[in-house]
């Protein structure tokens, strides 16, 4: 149920609590006086505190440990880095060579992937792909030069540890003066907490993927659907509200490790240009981010500078980062980070005086899937409701699993329960639920590289990959093949080859696809020189998306959906780039 204005806004004991802010979220620039201390959790060390440390320099030590973690009165299994969840901010300098020693005190293997950093493949941190993992009691040393700057993050690539807290923010400051000018900056790291062990979550998704959906249609709901539409969804045994696999109340959404009832406070001075380094470090949650009454100017995506574009809201997929410039007026403002299915939110406060309570809007109504999300296009913009992927035929007789639409290299079997009939490029759409919010929302087509791309060659070939799945059995794959079936058959690129990769989503879920080791350029209508460079690309349900890639980082690289349980369920591949010595 949406929180009422009274529940989240009133002063006194029922009001919004402004928790002590983790030190790395306080920003830097003009001194603001009276800094806040860290949050230390309960006495006795029963809970890992939110991350407050900042690690800088060229030699850094990190320790991974396990214990119980408590958020909002709920306790569950936690995996911490240097004793905090999130882990400390690792802040490095472009041009330096850095040594990062990671000690594993867990009873199982662990790893750290430096998400978005250009590194030699043996230091990418993916067990079974680029290194064997870090055994219990062992220390692994990562050593590489810093060849870029920007906003990134780090996380485990072992099992489901990322869900339990094994993640943290990572910033690389530029060697030259920063192209992005601001008076003050903050890190806003979004994530989730759950008291349920992640392996139990995966088990329940496998036995009934709708288990965590608390927004199903009922006889008494007020969703804007006709009787015919409801019958169509019922026939396909799927609710139109099946937006997220896991949501509140199973998840508590966090801003810098804190729930909305203890929202972190970011203090600024009126007239300042404030930079917000926004990171989605969640396991499964897309967030819709807005600051009511304040415009957001997007200046970087996935650590790469873009030409400034001003919006009022954006949807940030799992693992994406955006740098925002805001110029708030004197007062307090709510940074509202609503989960895509609108079951809950994370919250931060942007204020010019400590202790001010901003207005926090109630959760908006849950969005509904549409015919367009099934890859059907009827010339109406996709706003008619209906569709599904759990039956071979829809109510009006249209096939939902027409395998004749698939190319011959896609393996057809029980791992595919839907085939998109008419997948179209949706990089010009803002994301599920945001088409008609009444204000400007960021789309991929708004992004344009600030620094022209070095390689603007025409791609020499087209590689088409299908994102496939069976939602009821919770099986996920590329081209119908789950990772354990394709790990010996990688996607191969020649050295310095220029390739266009088209991703076709044959499922009704949005998939944030991440390529390790390299940046690609999103084909979004910009000229080749200004296509935005990213390492995560969301492919909307029933749609397609395309990127251009220069294969100039030799080695084996993971390529996967960054929804943690989708990757764990099979939607992962290996990309192999031949070294220059193998080039003809």
Can you describe what's shown?
This protein is mainly β and 584 residues long. The chain is built from 5 helices and 32 strands. It has helices spanning 5-9, 198-207, 227-235, 483-486, 564-568, and strands at 54-55, 59-71, 74-81, 89-93, 97-104, 113-115, 139-145, 150-155, 167-173, 184-193, 252-255, 258-259, 265-267, 274-280, 287-290, 296-301, 304-311, 314-316, 321-326, 332-339, 345-351, 461-470, 475-478, 491-493, 497-505, 511-515, 520-522, 533-534, 536-539, 544-551, 555-561, 572-577. The relative contact order is 0.12. Residues 1-15, 26-45 and 378-398 have low confidence and may be disordered.
Task: Walk me through the topology.
Blueprint lengths: L4 H5 L44 E2 L3 E13 L2 E8 L7 E5 L3 E8 L8 E3 L23 E7 L4 E6 L11 E7 L10 E10 L4 H10 L19 H9 L16 E4 L2 E2 L5 E3 L6 E7 L6 E4 L5 E6 L2 E8 L2 E3 L4 E6 L5 E8 L5 E7 L109 E10 L4 E4 L4 H4 L4 E3 L3 E9 L5 E5 L4 E3 L10 E2 L1 E4 L4 E8 L3 E7 L2 H5 L3 E6 L7
Parallel strand pairs: 1-4, 2-5, 4-9, 10-14, 13-21, 22-25, 24-32
Antiparallel strand pairs: 2-3, 5-7, 6-8, 8-9, 10-11, 11-12, 14-19, 15-18, 15-20, 16-17, 16-19, 20-21, 22-23, 25-30, 26-29, 26-31, 27-28, 27-30, 31-32
Helix content: under 10%
Q: Major beta sheet, specifics?
A: 7 strands, mixed
| Apparent shape | globular
**Number of extended strands:** 32
Strand-pairing-aware structural class: mainly beta
Across the major sheet, the strand order is 12-11-10-14-19-16-17
Mean residue pLDDT: 85
Distance between the termini: 62 Å
Rg from Cα: 23 Å
Please state roughly what percent of the residues sit in beta strands, choosing from under 5%, 5-15%, 15-25%, 25-35%, 35-45% or over 45%. Answer: 25-35%
Which regions have little confidence, pLDDT < 50, spanning 5+ residues?
Answer: 1-15, 26-45, 378-398
The count of helical stretches stands at 5
């Amino acid at each position: 149920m949406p929180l009422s204005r009274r529940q989240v806004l009133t002063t006194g004991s029922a009001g919004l609590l402004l928790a002590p802010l983790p030190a790395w979220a306080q920003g830097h620039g003009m001194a603001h006086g009276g800094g806040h201390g860290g949050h230390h959790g309960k006495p006795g060390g029963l809970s890992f505190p939110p991350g407050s440390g900042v690690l800088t320099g060229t030699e850094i030590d990190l320790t991974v440990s396990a214990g119980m973690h408590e958020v909002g009165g709920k306790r569950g299994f936690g995996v911490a880095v240097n004793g905090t969840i999130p882990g400390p901010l690792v802040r490095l300098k472009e041009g330096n060579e850095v040594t990062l020693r990671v000690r594993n005190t867990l009873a199982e293997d662990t790893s750290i992937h430096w998400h978005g950093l250009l590194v030699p493949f043996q230091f990418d941190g993916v067990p079974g792909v680029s290194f064997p993992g870090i055994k219990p009691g062992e220390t692994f040393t990562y050593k590489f030069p810093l060849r870029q700057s920007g906003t990134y993050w780090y996380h485990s690539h072992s099992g489901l540890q990322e869900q339990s807290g094994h993640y943290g923010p990572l910033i690389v400051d530029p060697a030259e003066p920063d192209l992005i000018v601001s008076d003050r900056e903050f890190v806003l790291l979004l994530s989730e907490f759950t008291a349920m062990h992640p392996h139990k979550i995966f088990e329940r998704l496998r036995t009934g993927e709708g288990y965590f959906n608390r927004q199903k249609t009922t006889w008494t709901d007020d969703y804007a659907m006709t009787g015919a539409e409801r019958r169509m969804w019922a026939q396909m045994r799927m609710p139109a509200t099946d937006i997220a696999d896991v949501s509140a109340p199973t998840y508590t959404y966090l801003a810098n490790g804190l729930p909305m009832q203890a929202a972190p406070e970011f203090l600024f001075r009126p007239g300042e240009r404030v930079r917000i380094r926004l990171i989605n470090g969640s396991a499964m949650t897309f967030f819709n981010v807005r600051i009511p009454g304040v415009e957001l100017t997007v200046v970087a995506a996935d650590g790469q500078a873009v030409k400034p574009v001003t919006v009022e809201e954006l949807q940030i997929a799992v693992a994406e980062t955006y740098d925002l410039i805001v110029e708030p007026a004197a007062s307090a403002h709510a940074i509202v980070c609503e989960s895509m299915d609108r079951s809950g939110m994370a919250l931060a406060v942007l204020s010019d005086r400590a202790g001010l309570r901003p207005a926090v809007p109630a959760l908006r109504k849950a969005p509904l899937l549409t015919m367009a999300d099934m890859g059907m296009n009827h010339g109406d913009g996709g706003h008619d409701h209906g569709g599904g992927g759990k039956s071979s035929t829809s109510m009006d007789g249209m096939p939902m699993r027409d395998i004749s639409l698939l190319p011959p290299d896609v393996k057809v079997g029980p791992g595919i329960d839907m085939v998109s009939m008419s997948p179209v490029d949706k990089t010009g759409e803002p994301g599920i639920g945001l088409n008609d919010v009444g204000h400007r929302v960021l789309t991929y087509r708004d992004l344009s590289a600030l620094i022209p791309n070095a390689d603007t060659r025409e791609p020499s070939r087209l590689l088409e990959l299908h994102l496939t799945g069976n939602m009821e059995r919770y099986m996920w794959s590329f081209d119908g093949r789950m990772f354990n079936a394709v790990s010996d058959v990688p996607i191969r690129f020649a050295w310095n080859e220029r390739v266009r990769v088209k991703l076709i989503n044959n499922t009704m879920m949005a998939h944030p696809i991440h390529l390790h080791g390299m940046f690609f350029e999103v084909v979004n209508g910009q000229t080749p020189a200004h296509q935005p460079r990213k390492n995560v690309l969301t492919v909307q349900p029933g749609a397609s998306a395309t990127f251009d890639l220069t294969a100039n980082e030799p080695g084996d690289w993971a390529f996967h959906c960054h929804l943690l349980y989708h990757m764990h369920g099979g939607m992962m591949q290996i990309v192999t780039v031949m070294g220059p010595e193998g080039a003809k």
